[in-house]
Specification:
Elements lengths: L2 H18 L4 E4 L6 H13 L26 E3 L11 H13 L7 E5 L7 H10 L7 E7 L7 H4 L3 E4 L5 H10 L5 H10 L4 H28 L3 H9 L4 H19 L11 H10 L2 H20 L5 H17 L2
Length: 325
Amino acid sequence: MNDFLYIDKKFNEIISIYKKKRIPLLIDLNNFIYKNILLNKIFKWILCINKINYNTCGKCNECIQSNINLNINFININNFIIDKTINIEVVKIFIKKIYRYNNSKNNTIFYIPNLNLLNDISINLILNILENYNNNIFIIICCKNINNIPNTIISRCFYIKTYIKNKLLIRFIKNEFKNIDIKIINIAINIYEKSYINIINFLINNYNKRTFFFNFFYVSLINNNFSNLLININKNNIKIYDILYWLIYLFKDLLIIKTKIEYIKNIDQIILINKLEKILSVDNIFKIIDNITYHINNIKKNKYINKSIIKYNIIIFLEKILLNK
């Protein structure tokens, strides 16, 4: 499963729980480089005041509710730190805030970015509040080492574990392809993580096609004309499934840059990514990713689907978003 689909799966899993019960959320973010994307999706859903039309509203960029820095209903324990440590006094202030907002009609997020930084006394104080708040309070706790978190905390939370890269697979691939540029190998591993067959296929058959595709994509963007892109895709027999996966990772990298995460996968396409970053809002990036994900799922469900039409639709959709046509 690619990273964005994985994030989407985790997000839907969390939201389905929240719709049934307001249980505290404990997320193990050990080595998970897309933590900000997952958390932002969760925060956005909780604070959204238009949940009935959540998937079609499209006004998040204009909505003050989605701006965490300005939203009074987003309480980060780090905001109460004075001497660079989360001491017991900081935790007490945080807990008082929870009690203060307990009767509020608005959804309020209480966020602890890293529970591992709290000492045992502070964790016990947090423990006392985990079962004593109303349905409009959302307690979200992150940690980097679940092994150091008491079972009493874990048992009172909905625990989400995010995956870690398979380092053995990475080492094996690098040993197998010693004659290929290490940068290309890293790109293959980043894009097709944990899928040995896809990594091999990419290194042997698809890297040059991908480079060709993105070069034409960039030229189309500069020239404000995507018609030649579709012609060249068909002329060079580039498969739609590959195009969709290359695009979803490209726009995911763009989302990473927009949300201030440093690590990206398509390091060889940074010029294109920087160009797109100036054009697209976060909301439009999500629209593109959702559209690509939709087509990927359709192809998976129906192997007889007309792939030429999908190629046409995706290029037209990109042209519409990128060139405002």
